[in-house]
Design brief:
CATH architecture: 3-Layer(aba) Sandwich
Largest sheet: 7 strands, mixed
CATH superfamily: Vaccinia Virus protein VP39
Helix content: 25-40%
Mean pLDDT: 86
Low-confidence stretches: 3-45
Number of strands: 7
Strand content: 15-25%
Order of helices and strands: HHHHEHEHHEEHHEHEHE
CATH topology: Rossmann fold
Oligomer: single chain
């Protein structure tokens, strides 16, 4: 498997049984990839509604390389779109290098919330190194991150938080890894199990072309948006919103090394580097799902 950063993070669901062939192209192969219209939209710019969240995003103690990517990742706006508030119980799946941890952990610590991080299951050398780097980075920020409850997500390890305890489960650019590993269904089911009735699952992922069938292993790092929606529905979720906040129409999704050709990975080194930098980070969808409420009651 390949990762944009030290490996860590991913998700999807659906009420349908599908395979890669289900998503055959309707448009000619040469057609430009289309971007589905959002069910609901997040603001494309501006600051998050909660001043406390905006302050955390602007904190100069964040890793400089992370903060430099805010203009394309829109962390405050995306978390606001998912409905984050500081008193929630939040689970982040596969936190990678810690981009989101450096925002979520201090925000929830200050507001009285609870933060779970489901790390990669041990056993893969690259993943183990990524987890070690994440722990080292967070250990250097103990004065601001508060308590982080560590769990594990991976083959035979899907207890990411106590059942029915979470208000919000988040995964950023990880679904393709779980598809490659053959346990995307289990990962999404774990999210459903951890959430309260009415709780929210937020998924960000590299959006694949809708004029090509979905590779069930997502080996180029891209996932068709309709495929992700179907997978989430299969796990029991309902799609309640989508955002184009991280869309990038320059991404043609036909790169020599898949999504890793583009920033931040830039897998080709100096070859055509300026071209790839000009394209920018991949086109990403942002989807908001809900676990159906019981008796009309929604989770907080």
């Amino acid at each position: 498997m390949k990762y944009l950063l030290p490996r860590v993070a991913i998700f999807a669901f659906a009420g349908l049984t599908m395979n890669a062939g289900t998503f055959a192209a309707a448009a000619p192969a040469s057609a430009a990839p289309a971007s589905p219209a959002p069910a609901s939209a997040a603001p494309a710019s501006g600051t998050p509604a909660d001043p406390a969240l905006a302050a955390i995003v602007a904190d100069p103690r964040r890793t400089a390389a992370f903060a430099a990517r805010d203009s394309v990742r829109h962390p405050g706006q995306e978390l606001s779109f998912f409905g984050l508030n500081s008193k929630m119980t939040v689970v982040e799946l596969w936190p990678g290098g810690g981009y989101w941890t450096e925002i979520l952990a201090p925000y929830l610590a200050k507001g009285g919330g609870t933060y779970y991080v489901a790390l990669n299951a041990p056993g893969d050398a690259n993943e183990d190194k990524g987890v070690a780097r994440w722990r080292a980075r967070i250990a250097g920020q103990k004065d601001r991150v508060g308590t982080i409850h560590e769990t594990v997500l991976g083959p035979a390890n899907f207890d990411i938080a106590p059942p029915g305890s979470a208000d919000l489960v988040l995964t950023f650019r990880n679904l393709h890894n779980w598809m490659d590993g053959g346990y995307a269904d289990e990962a999404l089911t774990a999210a459903f199990k951890a959430l309260k009735p009415g709780g929210i699952l937020g998924i960000e992922e590299h959006r694949g072309r809708d004029d090509k069938p979905q590779d069930s292993k997502a080996r180029d790092g891209y996932v068709r948006q309709d495929y992700a929606v179907a997978q989430a529905r299969k796990a029991g979720f309902v799609l309640v919103g989508s955002s184009e906040i991280n869309a990038n129409p320059k991404d043609t999704k036909d790169w020599v090394d898949g999504v890793w050709t583009l920033p931040p990975a830039l897998s080709q080194g100096d070859k055509d580097r300026d071209r790839y930098i000009a394209v920018g980070e991949a086109d990403n969808f942002v989807l908001k799902f809900q676990k159906p409420a019981l008796n009309g009651q929604k989770g907080s």
